[in-house]
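Shall we go through a protein fold together, starting from nothing but its sequence? Label the sequence line and the structure token line clearly, so we can match residues to local backbone shapes. Would you write everything just below, so we can both look at the same thing?
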Amino acid sequence: MKIYHNPRCSKSRQALNLLTESGKSPEIVEYLKNPISESELKSVIKKLGIEPIDLVRKGEAIYKEEFKSKDPSTVDWIKAMVDYPKLMERPIVVSGEKAIIGRPPENVLQL
């Protein structure tokens, strides 16, 4: 089990706490310090079963400044999240071939 985690995000901290309280010891990936690769992000999106745009945080300043008025392709969204990891929704928990976005944090208990 792996959690893409931002320790400054309260929802991410709550999700991590729920996992550890349920006896899980996930690998913690602080994706802002150790950015996710393009191939890894593609894999996560596939496991989530969503389109890349569905993983984009539309409230982030970088989205509003750089992307809101544009219509990037799927490939461009993946590149944007690799280049600007703050654009990624968080936390994301991956277990085997499944993944889930921890919003609300209780979602992570479904894995």
